[in-house]
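Anyone able to model this chain together with fe (ii) ion?
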Amino acid sequence: MSGKYAQRNAQDHHVIAKDDPLAISLLKEEHHIFRSLFDEAENADAKRLAAIARELCMRLSVHMTIEEEILYPALKPVLGDDEINEGIVEHQSGKRIVAELEQLDGTEDLFAAKVHVLGEETVHHIDEEDEDMFEDAKAAHASGKIDLDALGERLRARQAQLYDDIARTGETGKTSEAQPDEVERADRAVTGG
Ligand SMILES: [Fe+2]
Ligand SMILES: [Fe+2]
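re: yes, here you go
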């Protein structure tokens, strides 16, 4: 099944290329899952939608955490602030909707609309990562400026740990994502305010 978002998984830079370093293939694989789940959400009945939303919230939280803890800080000195700041600000917006959804059980009037908007914003964000940030990162990897295979190992280990925490406690435990002052700086840089 391939809906409007998931069909992109087989196109252009969204495809997982044979020579993609581990950090890129690992994150693109998750982007594929997000697009498929958001497609599924569009046609789901209320009960199924609540289950899909729960899964998306968990997966997105872990994904944003490992990007902010490991990927973004490693790429910032190589790619410059702008691209990374934009990513951080988009994550903030995603996290706000995730936090709202986590307070709801799926019976509320706005539940489906919130999932829909989270889908639009998330797909915009992951498309940009695939097309711009990851392509720039791969060029830096090819020229020896960064090792995206080693970074991929760190992403994978941290991801496993976070899923483990969730399985044990229902929560992601302690994370070190972008700090409020960093988010504020990124926000100002992106909006020019
Ligand atoms: Fe991201
Ligand atoms: Fe991502």
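DSSP finds six helices and no strands in the chain.
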